[in-house]
Write a structure and sequence with these properties.
The chain is mainly α. The chain is built from 15 helices and 6 strands. The strands form 3 sheets. Strands 1-2 form a two-stranded antiparallel sheet. The radius of gyration is 37 Å and the shape is extended. The relative contact order is 0.08. The model has no long low-confidence stretch (mean pLDDT about 85).
């Protein structure tokens, strides 16, 4: 991977630039495409027109010769300097062409048939004549073709446009320039960030070499998955019992006269709508809290004090959430966050130990055993505290979800919408905590600090190097996507070849689906380790950068960058 990572990054950046300009060009062409004309043909003609206009402008600036490109009607009065057809074919000289000999300056002295300029020669009152300017070409497969005056990029379409609405064409036309502007801005950003891009490429090479020297590190997420699966199975067995313990008084046990009284009514409009036709929903006695049960009609009815028969009753929901479930669910969230954090700090510790080893030691010594001993002996408390913070935020988000369901059961749409917004804010905060925790674990692996000092150091490090972190993160996404696609494709291709060689008569659809799933799982496991190795290498590089020339045992991919930083 480290031998191709540079090519992958630069080619990916070029592809992004190409997509910006190609997308803008397609929108530009589509905004002026004539009816019954093919999109690619229209694009080619407009590209030719742009090239001819540019070359003519440059030639005019050098020679000082300026031609009048004005034209009216069918172009009989055109005396411009166009020498190319709409598809870029070169025009032949009128007096030397052999396909239509009668069109020459002698027979049409007033038509301006000089050199190889496009014209529309015909006699006054002629029945057969061209619709616009044209010329005889040098192409043996196309003897003549129509032209456009120099500078006309988007000709008018007398028979209409492919996009009929004028507003739609204007939107496409403006959007094309927006995409071109974004593409130009992207090019400027790439040129400005070239040093940081080179750093990101070097870090990815370092991470690839780390995985090459420590392949056992990929087993960390595998072990995480196995332990998490066993834990989830055990937790599901226990929580299923807790959920099924529905109290007898969760729903009323009395009788109700009507179905609406028991089940309630739904709102006829959304919470944001209003009007005479909108009726607010009314919660029923059986459905006014979540989880909701149901309503059934009993054959043995009860007569009320007013003499009315009451036959509708409530049935209990199949599950219910109480304090016991809340405690169990919080433990579940904490354990899951702990497993993720433990894997992150183990990988970070492996990279940190490997990064500062001499080159000869890096290749023959695995860092995983020492990383496991160090983490389990010194840093489990930090891992538990960091995962506790993540679990608390997650629990609050699910708690808001619970009350959103309660508000919906009470037909309080405004409260339900506000609680959805609270969940969104908590989700964003949760992602922030997870990001900060991952960098805090890297600082713990590098410096041995406790969680809070490490998180503080990671936060200030990120603030001081926002552009570096942003560049590495952006390119990391590109490399991760390419890596996942490559692994899935390779696994599927090799599996298919193996299947065809061993069992040529087997229908390959189901095996190919299985190969894709296996390839995706392997790719996600590998790239998760690779991404964290890149982030840890960035932290290591920044420590080396602060140390300057005093640190000798660093990967060769980063030595030149460290020297440049020290010189600066």
């Amino acid at each position: 991977l480290r031998f191709f990572i540079g090519w992958v990054v630069w080619i990916s950046l070029l592809v992004i630039v190409f997509l910006f300009f190609f997308g803008g060009s397609m929108l530009f062409v589509l905004s002026g495409q004539c009816k019954d004309a093919e999109l690619l043909a229209s694009g080619k003609q407009q590209a030719v027109a742009v090239a001819i206009a540019g070359s003519s402008a440059a030639r005019g600036a050098i020679t000082g010769n300026v031609f009048d490109e004005s034209m009216t009607g069918d172009g009989a009065d055109y005396r411009g300097a166009q020498t190319r057809t709409i598809n870029g074919r070169k025009c032949a000289q009128w007096d030397k062409q052999v396909h239509f000999r009668r069109y020459n300056s002698t027979n049409f002295p007033d038509a301006g048939l000089a050199k190889s300029f496009c014209r529309n020669p015909y006699y006054p009152g002629a029945e057969f004549k061209a619709k616009t300017i044209w010329c005889v070409t040098d192409d043996p497969e196309r003897h003549w073709e129509e032209c456009l005056p120099v500078g006309i990029i988007r000709p008018l379409c007398p028979r209409g446009y492919a996009i009929e609405g004028e507003t739609a064409r204007q939107i496409l036309f403006g959007s094309s320039f927006v995409l071109w502007g974004l593409g130009a801005l992207f090019v400027v950003l790439v040129l400005v960030f070239i040093p940081r891009i080179r750093l990101a490429i070097a870090l990815n090479k370092v991470a690839a070499r780390f995985l090459g020297n420590n392949p056992h590190t990929v087993l960390i997420p595998v072990a995480q998955g196995v332990v998490a699966l066993l834990w989830c199975l055990g937790w599901l067995m226990g929580v299923s019992f807790l959920l099924s313990q529905v109290p007898a008084d969760h729903t009323p046990s009395g009788y109700y006269a009507t179905f609406i009284e028991a089940a309630g009514t739904a709102s006829t409009c959304s919470w944001s709508e209003d009007g005479e036709d909108c009726a607010a929903g009314v919660p029923g006695e059986c459905t006014n809290k979540w989880p909701t049960g149901g309503v059934w009609k009993d054959k043995d009815c009860e007569r009320g004090d007013d003499g009315e028969w009451k036959c509708w009753r409530c049935w209990q929901p199949r599950y219910v959430f109480d304090a016991r479930f809340a405690i169990s669910f919080f433990v579940f969230l904490w354990n899951n966050a702990f497993m993720v954090a433990l894997g992150q700090i183990l990988i970070a510790m492996c990279v940190a130990l490997w990064f500062f080893q001499p080159a000869e030691t890096q290749e023959r010594k695995s860092m995983l055993p020492k990383a496991v001993r160090t983490v389990f002996r010194y840093h489990l408390g930090s891992v538990m505290f960091g995962s506790f913070l993540v679990a608390v935020v997650e629990f609050l988000r699910y708690f808001a979800k619970y009350y959103e369901k309660q508000a919906s059961a009470m037909k309080n749409h405004m409260a339900a919408t506000m609680l959805k917004c609270v969940q969104c804010v908590l989700w964003c905060f949760e992602k922030f905590i997870q990001f900060l925790n991952a960098n805090a674990y890297i600082q713990i692996a590098l410096t041995g600090k406790d969680f809070i000092p490490a998180a503080k150091a990671a936060w200030y490090l990120i603030l001081r190097n926002l552009l570096r972190f942003g560049t590495v993160a952006a390119l990391g996404r590109v490399v991760s996507a390419v890596g996942v696609v490559f692994i899935i494709t390779s696994a599927t291709f090799c599996g298919h070849l193996t299947l065809r060689s061993m069992h040529p008569d087997v229908y390959p659809f189901v095996p190919i689906v299985i190969y894709i799933i296996i390839g995706y799982v392997v790719a996600r496991l590998f790239m998760s380790v690779f991404t964290l190795a890149v982030d840890t290498s960035l932290h290591c590089f920044m420590i080396v950068e602060e140390m300057g020339e005093r640190c000798e045992n660093i990967p060769p991919e980063l030595k030149s960058l460290v020297h440049q930083s020290s010189a600066a």
